[in-house]
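Risk register update: the risk of archive-format incompatibility is retired. Evidence:
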Amino acid sequence: MGEWHYHTANAPWPSSQDVDQMRVVAAKPAYRCDIRLLAIVCPVKLTFSIKLFAFPGRDPPVELVLQT
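Archived output:
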């Protein structure tokens, strides 16, 4: 369970509004979701950056890094 959205500024980090929204999702029993995911897409020079964050319980977001 999660969401994604686009940040127009070069700030691929969860904003306070993002964190609040993830807390709202966590508080709704209908979601039954212990860890929420948030993907943020933002422009970086001539390309895009995509960052993925996990929101475990009430803890601060944790950036998930893919390794190849």
